[in-house]
From TrEMBL:
GO terms of molecular function: enoyl-CoA hydratase activity
Pfam family, one: ECH_1
Similarity remark: Belongs to the enoyl-CoA hydratase/isomerase family.
EC numbers: 4.2.1.17
NCBIfam families: PRK05870.1 (NF004525)
Lineage summary: Bacteria, Bacillati, Actinomycetota, Actinomycetes, Pseudonocardiales
InterPro entries cross-referenced by the UniProt entry: ClpP/crotonase-like_dom_sf, Enoyl-CoA_hydra/iso
Keywords carried by this UniProt record: Lyase
Name of protein: Enoyl-CoA hydratase
Amino acid sequence: MTDRIHSEHDQGVALLTVDAPKSRNALTLDLSAELAAAVARAEADESVHAVIVTGAPPAFCAGADLTALGKADAEGLRSVYAGFLAVAGCRLPTIAAVGGAAVGAGLNLALAADVRLVGPHAKFIPRFLELGLHPGGGMTWMSQRILGPQQASAMALFGETLTAESAVRAGFALRFVDGDHDALVQAARDLAAPTVAAPREVVLSTKRTMRHTSGLTEHAAAVDAELVPQLESLAAPAFAERLAAMKARISGR
């Protein structure tokens, strides 16, 4: 079987699966480039409102291909990063459905998503210290932003692994899904359903605004940042249609 990124656009969601079973879904340079291209296709497809990233069972992603990593210069490292950086930069909402081990660059791939759901066998393993390797790809920034400095330090400086349960307790994963890989992906689809039902431009503008306001320090600045896109959504036909439908439902009660 050829290693690949399996890409499926269905019912408003792009499901991207890292499928390289012999290497436990390790990211080669080719797979990383394919993942970046798959993210770009999802963004370009007007029918897609959300992206789910997962790995073919039993792993999520065993990290970067060590042969490529060992030979890499600065440009080569950026090529290794390309796949998970595309997820991090995606204009659409992203969910990582993690059903197995997420190691090194696989941890970065999970960190890159907006939200993470975990199955019973999920594990988040830094492995950088074990390899004598400095973290890369923005791992130190992403982990501190999501986990806070103490838990991020435990992973980056002490190599601490998070299980599915401890990831939820630490706020790294949104929720635990008890079931097989299909159940995990379905839970991710269910989470994405309101996004799929919403106007795509509102989804895109909301994610843009969240990225902007995450760096602000004052409430008033966030109010100002939200004002223009909210006014644009108020003037859109979709809002008028949905408001009328809601009023009709309320009056019919």
